[in-house]
Design goal:
globular; five-stranded antiparallel beta sheet; 31% helix
């Protein structure tokens, strides 16, 4: 498509404006056609400035996600080696589950969407996923373990994301148990792991891990999210390269996943515990049945949160049943 060819030229000249005349001559089209193509890119969410007497300028944070760019940065054996990029999808997790029959034997298959219309979060929450403003990705795995181990995959994804943000944005975020990646009190990322499990054996047939990372602030963000959601470019000193971020997440995840599979669960949990920013503060512990105030004090070998209530009694929390919310001062 013409707009893709225009985007490629703008990417090659990122930081330098390119005139419509130059683009038109290179592609053999009129300046009017270039103008229409640029407007289509803007509608797709790309940040492109029109500078009088200079041309079109692609914002440094608005680079395209390209399979070849991600692939050149990977050092994985299997994760992301099969890579799909979709313009729009309901949810990358839902998409992989929908095509799971065709993915048998293809552990590591990864899908990236430029926009999600029904992004998914924990406890049936939605994840806001505007076009070109974040990284929305999921990968398919066929691990040989039982249902109880699934929660550790989410923990691995949390650690991988924190490492990748440090690599690409230059700061290390914290984590609110179980999987909220935060910086200065704002949520940067959502993570959701879903699985298909054989009822008789309890063995996992496959699992899908979805990761959504906010990169740019979206002017159309719902008002109720503005004080909650944070973005990498809000806190980073340099614009985030999405290809680098995606590759970094995949690289770190596979390394951590292989560490876990080799039996070194403790190393992964120790790093996760260092990232947690909930200890020593009182939270409302909320379940389907009741809620009570308690202070997180530790995690166990399954990453369940151990909290002490006001009577001094210890409780072990399962993330699938309970959430924690900061108490009002």
């Amino acid at each position: 498509m013409l707009k893709d060819s225009i985007l490629k030229i703008l990417e090659e000249n990122k930081g330098t404006p390119v005139s419509g005349l130059v683009i038109g001559k290179r592609l053999g089209v009129s300046r009017s056609a270039v103008w229409k193509g640029v407007n289509q890119l803007k509608e797709d969410g790309f940040s492109i400035s029109s500078l009088p007497n200079k041309g079109y300028l692609l914002d440094e944070s608005g680079g395209a996600v390209r399979p070849e760019a991600v692939g050149s940065l990977l050092n994985t054996r299997y994760l992301g080696r099969e890579l799909e990029i979709l313009d729009t999808v309901d949810s990358t997790n839902t998409y992989l589950k929908r095509i799971s029959d065709s993915l048998a034997g293809k552990s590591g298959h990864t899908v990236i969407a430029l926009r999600q219309t029904a992004g998914k979060g924990r406890m049936t929450r939605q994840f806001y996923s505007p076009a070109q403003q974040g990284v929305y990705m999921s990968f398919y795995l066929e691990p040989h373990f039982v249902f109880e181990d699934i929660s550790l995959v989410t923990i691995i994804a949390v650690v991988a994301v924190c490492r990748a943000i440090k690599d690409t944005a230059g700061f290390l975020p914290g984590v609110k148990w179980v999987n909220d990646v935060l910086y200065q009190g704002k949520k940067l990322c959502g993570i959701l792991t879903e699985a298909s499990v054989e009822a008789e054996s309890g063995q996992v047939k496959y699992l899908v891990t979805g990761i959504g990372i906010n990169i740019n602030q979206d002017e159309n963000m719902p008002e109720e999210l503005r004080g909650i959601v944070g973005t990498l470019n809000e806190f980073s000193e340099k614009p985030c390269d999405r290809n680098f971020l995606i590759a970094s997440v995949l690289n770190h995840f596979e390394t951590l996943f292989e560490t876990y599979l080799s039996g070194n669960r403790a190393a992964v949990l120790a790093e996760y515990k260092e990232l947690l920013c909930v200890f020593g503060q009182e939270y409302n512990i909320i379940s389907l049945k009741d809620s009570f105030p308690a202070v997180p004090v530790d995690i166990d070998e399954d990453a369940h949160l151990i909290v002490r209530d006001r009577k001094g009694v210890l409780h072990t929390l399962n993330s699938g049943e309970i959430s924690i919310r900061k108490r009002a001062e």
